[in-house]
Design brief:
258 residues; alpha+beta; Fructose-1,6-Bisphosphatase, Chain A, domain 1; D-Maltodextrin-Binding Protein, domain 2; eight-stranded mixed β-sheet; 7 helices; globular; binds D-MYO-inositol-1-phosphate; binds calcium ion
């Protein structure tokens, strides 16, 4: 099977998971994994649906899901990296900016991903070498540059403290960017960079399931991904800078790695 065919199955799983999230809306209960780090029954139900569908089709594939589900990759060396609900805090508050994120790794390299926004019925997808799409139509990153013409998003970990590095980085960029936001869904931020709706995003607190699908999609849409000091991204380290691939990348490296 090709990467494109695997990604088509992931889209099916993401849609099923999105239906589950919408079905749970308004009747879930909320627990805290840590201060301000929320989880609901919907997170778990979504992950179960994704795992069951992918495992039934590809029993030899590994799985790494945020909600405590992990299975090593078998002979084919494929592994799905899944956030069944990215943006749980938004979901809980009915702020419509959350998504299902499913990335695919082959021999530890990202080869595909899907991010599904059930509120808008938007499916962002990419397979390595086949380009990135939104609901089947090709997408590309924006050309906005330099930074004073760009819209960027900063990310803070749950329960961030006032004097922490993420806040200091935010303050450094603040006077240089045209617009700066905090959104609550890393996966959708990456999907929005891939589709030209956002120009840059950085974080020092993400996990592989927040980034895997989005990184695969952004790379196919002409964007650039690195650590905040410009070194190559390591999916397993919490250090990400993603942009539309213009000169704003180096501008942000200069500000964020000072
Ligand atoms: C969170 C979101 C948020 C980021 C947090 C993540 P969750 O994921 O991606 O944007 O700032 O660090 O934990 O908990 O909603 O899946
Ligand atoms: Ca997440
Ligand atoms: Ca999550």
């Amino acid at each position: 099977m090709s990467f494109v065919e695997f990604v088509a199955v992931a889209q099916e799983a993401a849609r099923a998971a999105g239906r589950i999230l919408q079905d749970w809306a308004g009747r879930f209960t909320v627990s805290e994994k840590g201060p301000a780090d929320l989880v609901t029954e919907a997170d778990v139900a979504s992950q179960t649906a994704i795992f069951e569908l992918l495992h039934a089709k590809f029993p030899e594939h590994g799985f790494l899901g945020e909600e405590g589900l992990s299975q090593p990759a078998g002979a084919g060396e494929f592994r799905w990296i899944v956030d069944p609900l990215d943006g749980t805090s938004n979901y809980v508050h009915r702020f419509p900016y959350y998504a299902v994120s499913i990335g695919l790794e082959h021999r530890r390299e990202l080869v595909g991903g899907v991010i599904y926004d059930p509120t808008r019925d938007e499916m962002f997808a990419a397979a390595r070498g086949a380009g990135a799409t939104l609901n089947g139509q090709p997408i590309q990153c924006s050309c906005f540059a330099p930074l004073n013409k760009a819209m960027v998003i900063a990310s803070f970990p749950p329960g961030v403290s006032p004097n922490s590095e993420p806040i200091q980085r935010f303050l450094k960029v603040l006077p240089h960017a045209q617009t700066i936001h905090r959104s609550g869904s890393a996966a959708l931020n990456l999907a929005y960079i891939a589709s030209g709706r956002l120009d840059g995003f950085w974080s020092s607190s993400l996990k592989p399931w927040d980034v895997a699908a989005g990184a695969a999609i952004v790379m196919e849409a002409g964007g650039r991904i690195s650590r905040m000091d410009g070194e190559p991204l390591d999916l397993y380290l919490p250090d990400l800078l993603c942009t539309n691939g213009t000169g704003i990348h180096d501008e942000l490296v200069g500000l964020l790695s000072q």
